[in-house]
Design a protein that fits this description.
This protein is of the alpha+beta class and 579 residues long. It has helices spanning 8-15, 22-74, 76-83, 87-103, 138-144, 191-195, 230-241, 273-299, 303-323, 337-378, 381-396, 400-418, 427-445, 470-481, 515-520, 537-549, and strands at 107-114, 118-121, 129-130, 150-151, 155-156, 166-175, 181-190, 208-213, 218-221, 245-247, 252-258, 264-270, 424-426, 449-455, 463-465, 488-496, 502-508, 554-560, 564-571. The strands form 4 sheets. Strands 1, 2, 3, 4, 5, 6 and 7 form a 7-stranded antiparallel sheet that branches. The protein is flat, with a radius of gyration of 41 Å. The model is unreliable at 520-528 (pLDDT under 50).
Length: 579
Amino acid sequence: MKRFPRSLQSRISWIYMLISFVMIGVIGAALYVGISRVVLEDSIQSSNMAISKSGTLVEMYIDRLKVLSTMLAHNPQTIQTLSSPTKAGEKDELQFIKNVLLSDPYIKSVVVIGKDGYVLSNEKELNMRRSSEMMDEPWYVAAINSTNPVLTSARMQKFSMDKDNWVISMSQEIKDADNRNLGVVLLDIEYKGIEDYLNDLELGSKGFAFIINRKGEIVYHKDPAYFTDPAKQGQLREISSSKKGFDNSQNLLVYKTELKNSDWSLVGVSSLDGLQQIRYQLLRSFAVVGLGLLILIIVVSPFIAKSITRPIHQLEQAMQKVKTGTLEVSVSETGVTEVQGLAQHFNTMVSEIRRLMQEIETKEKALHTYELSVLHSQINPHFLYNTLDAIVWMAEFNESERVISMTKALAKFFQLSLSGGSELTTVENEMNHVAQYLYIQKERYGDKLHYHIDFDPLLSAEVIPKIILQPLVENAIYHGIREKEGPGLLEITCGNTDGGDIMFVVKDDGVGFDPDSHLQDLAPDQPSSLPKLGGVGINNVDDRLKLYYGKEYGVTIQSQPGVGTTVQVVIPPKIRKHD
């Protein structure tokens, strides 16, 4: 059987007559419906987000007003003024009220009403007057019956000389130290204070926003006529109680959001004017494109797109899965030659990514293991116990200066060990860390231990993994010098190699050992070829350095029984700021 031609030009000639003109209408209709749905959902989401954002801004403003109200109600000067009014107290309270007014330009007035009708306010006509009428106001009664600040719906201000302004009030009860009622503080906020947060809402030519409370009272609407017209108020209540969402018959979107810490709800009604315009533009665009496609079908075969886009679409889906983190994907290597090449490269790429991810995961696990080992090695319980025991012994013999010096050295040792939780340190800090450790060991071993530390000052700022020398020094003391008859010398140096790398050398004249015999004692699964001499050991230091810098770096050991041991640590230079 003759193999079907795979070249692009050959496929055009074989399948040219199979293309149907009906496909243009099907594709156009599907695209129109799909894009219209996407645009509709995007418009709804944008409107909902805008209303929610405005609601959040109003919530924040309400919270700020509650803070001011609470400050006034709990202010000792307010409590003192209502308990026993004096001229000086009234003056201080009026100054405090003035400061509150300055903190928010939309606060119209602040009124402090005592339970006996005593009134103190920035409204001069109300100051020093007694008014039992205020105590019958709904906001006064609500404040007495609530433990939190109370918000009202929009109302005409009765206490200002300018009574044409609509305000929103916040009232809160004032209590004395014994939790007894003293009165109520009232804040009247200009209507514009809420309106400014809602003016920027773009809800279309027929859209609007309003705020309504749980009692069905209108708190905000851009048209104040809704505050006095019962019919209009009923329309807003009906909208508020209706099901939120998009009404396709009226081309209106209703979205309602509850405002936290209040009984208000922000309702937005959007006419989505742009949706109809976009739909019209889509129809016009599809008509033009459809005509062009009809002409294109006459000239060339449109099946080129179908035969090519199918494997490309599969490749795109596979890429989307890889984007979400799914690497167990594979694309069938079908289609024209060019697409086959893409599929082959993609499959190779995914396979390589899987391999690299596994390698990274393995390294991260190893790094985590080594970091835990380093943390455990930072606080050696035996070393800490022996040091504290030596400090106690010195204290019993009243050697206070040695106790202070050794305690300071121990504190500095642990400070450098922790290094703020960082895994890295500097050469200078690492050498200082070893110096503190050797100072403590010198106090314990006395003339048994002598040491010398030297490093190139030019390397002080080099950043290295921390605690790479202390395990080596510990092994040198415990397995070299301590086992030796007579005093021992330990030398720690740091400098550059001929190749420019950083090299640490820990040299002792202790008993030494036979490296070959120590290697034979290792377990069969021991990953390192270095001898493990105790504690966290040299192996951990070597493995950490190889993980950081590569297999060409790490620890090397030279030792000879009866002569001593020399341990070298080589790492590449890399200066950077140390946290």
